[in-house]
């Protein structure tokens, strides 16, 4: 039987350190993916090549190399020879399956592994302290960082140090992003002033390009039009009779997001199968827009279907946002929300 649960805008999730560490694993959507379940697009050979490279990289996880780590590479290691990067970095547009590939690497690799988004790692440092985070993650064989982006100088310095120290400890690193590692931060802040830190980050990784079209919309019709507000709840109850449905007002939800740290958005949507969102409007404030991007990612991770009224999702962000320094984030959010909205109106899973 359909059950309507508390609105997201009334939830105040508390997340302890143990939950943060326990949560460093692939989400529901990617819990059982593998290299075999990734279907490369024949029109883009880089996808099959990425699978091959990652399979090979998985075989190196848990195996130490002489003179490894960043210091070994900077100073030539043993015998004066530079060492290969300790990480692999998937660079490509949204919807080409980078997160699927990263999760497949996680599942294929031995030892204790961590898988989380960029914001989850920065929040872990805030909860544990930098030194304790290094000590904990240094015991892992592999650290996977999804959606790697540098949005401010503090994060640049923090992640530069963290990646450097984990590499020194022999931890293998893997990341996905829409931006080449040497270009992180471009268009977001005075990245040139932090060139050294960004270069230290770039030095950790061997870059693998993944080209292709957004698989979520490959050969599919245009995004569905928003529904009438008065139809939403009845349609949700009839279409998803066994689902946990949450009903939220868009304005109330966006306001609430400013009061909840993005690292807690996974817990914010816990137990939700369908989000009914009334009165979607174009977001004018960039700080609010960036938080909504994180929410969209977590909704997509957990396959929460969306039914909405108001503006269509391709009008969720301003034209300036869609062409500015964070444009790739906004395009990814629109892509994912469109897939969830299409699934919601068709009454089927978006997996």
Task: Provide an overview of this structure.
Keywords: ATP-binding, Cell cycle, Cell division, Nucleotide-binding. InterPro entries: ATPase_AFG1-like, P-loop_NTPase. This is Cell division protein ZapE. The structure is a single chain. The protein is α/β, with parallel strands linked by helices and about 350 residues long. The protein folds into two domains: about 5-15 and about 220-345, Rossmann fold, CATH 3.40.50; about 40-210, Rossmann fold, CATH 3.40.50.300. It is built from 14 helices and nine strands. The protein has a five-stranded parallel sheet, with helices on both faces. It starts with a strand and ends in a 5-residue tail after the last helix. The model is unreliable at about 65-80 and about 185-195 (pLDDT under 50).
Distance between the termini: 22 Å
Side-by-side strand order of the widest sheet? 3-4-5-2-6
Q: Spans with pLDDT under 50 lasting ≥5 residues? A: 66-82, 184-195
CATH superfamily of the largest domain: P-loop containing nucleotide triphosphate hydrolases
**Beta-strand share of residues:** 5-15%
CATH class of the largest domain: Alpha Beta
User: What's the multimeric state?
Assistant: single chain
Structural class by sheet pairing and helices = alpha/beta
Report the major sheet.
Answer: 5 strands, parallel
Radius of gyration: 21 Å
Mean pLDDT: 84
Strand count: 9
The percentage helix is: 40-55%
Shape: globular
The CATH topology name of the largest domain reads Rossmann fold
Alpha plus pi helix count: 14
Helix and strand run: EHHHEHEHHEHEHEHEHHEHEHH
| Overall tally of structural domains | 2
Please state the second-level CATH architecture of the largest domain: 3-Layer(aba) Sandwich
């Amino acid at each position: 039987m359909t059950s309507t649960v508390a609105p997201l805008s009334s939830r105040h999730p508390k997340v302890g350190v143990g939950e943060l560490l326990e949560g460093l694993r692939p989400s529901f959507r990617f819990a059982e993916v593998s290299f075999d379940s990734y279907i490369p697009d024949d029109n883009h050979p880089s996808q099959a090549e990425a699978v091959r490279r990652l399979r090979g990289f998985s075989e190196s996880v848990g195996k130490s190399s002489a003179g490894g780590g960043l210091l070994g590479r900077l100073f030539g290691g043993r015998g004066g020879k530079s060492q290969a990067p300790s990480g692999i970095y998937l660079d490509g547009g949204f919807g080409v399956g980078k997160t699927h590939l990263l999760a497949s690497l996680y599942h294929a690799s031995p030892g204790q592994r961590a898988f989380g988004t960029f914001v989850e790692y920065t929040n872990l440092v805030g909860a544990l302290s930098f030194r304790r985070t290094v000590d904990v993650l240094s015991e892992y064989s592999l650290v996977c960082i999804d959606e790697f982006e540098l949005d401010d100088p503090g994060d640049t310095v923090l992640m530069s140090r963290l990646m450097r120290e984990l590499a020194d400890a022999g931890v293998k690193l893997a990341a996905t992003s829409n931006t080449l590692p040497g270009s992180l931060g471009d268009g977001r802040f005075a990245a040139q002033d932090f060139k050294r830190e960004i270069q230290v980050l770039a030095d950790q990784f061997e870059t693998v390009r993944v080209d292709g079209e957004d698989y979520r919309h490959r050969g599919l019709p245009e995004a569905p039009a928003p529904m009438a507000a008065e139809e939403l709840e009845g349609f949700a109850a009839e279409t998803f009779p066994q689902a946990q449905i949450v009903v939220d007002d868009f304005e109330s939800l966006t306001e609430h997001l400013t009061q909840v740290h993005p690292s807690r958005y996974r817990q914010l949507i816990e137990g939700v199968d369908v989000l009914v969102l009334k009165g979607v409007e174009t977001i004018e404030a960039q700080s609010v827009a960036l938080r909504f991007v994180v929410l969209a990612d977590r909704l997509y991770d957990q396959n929460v279907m969306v039914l909405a009224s108001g503006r269509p999702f391709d009008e969720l962000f301003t034209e300036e946002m869609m062409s500015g320094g964070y444009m790739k984030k906004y395009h990814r959010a629109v892509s994912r929300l469109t897939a969830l909205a299409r699934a919601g109106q068709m009454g089927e899973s978006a997996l």
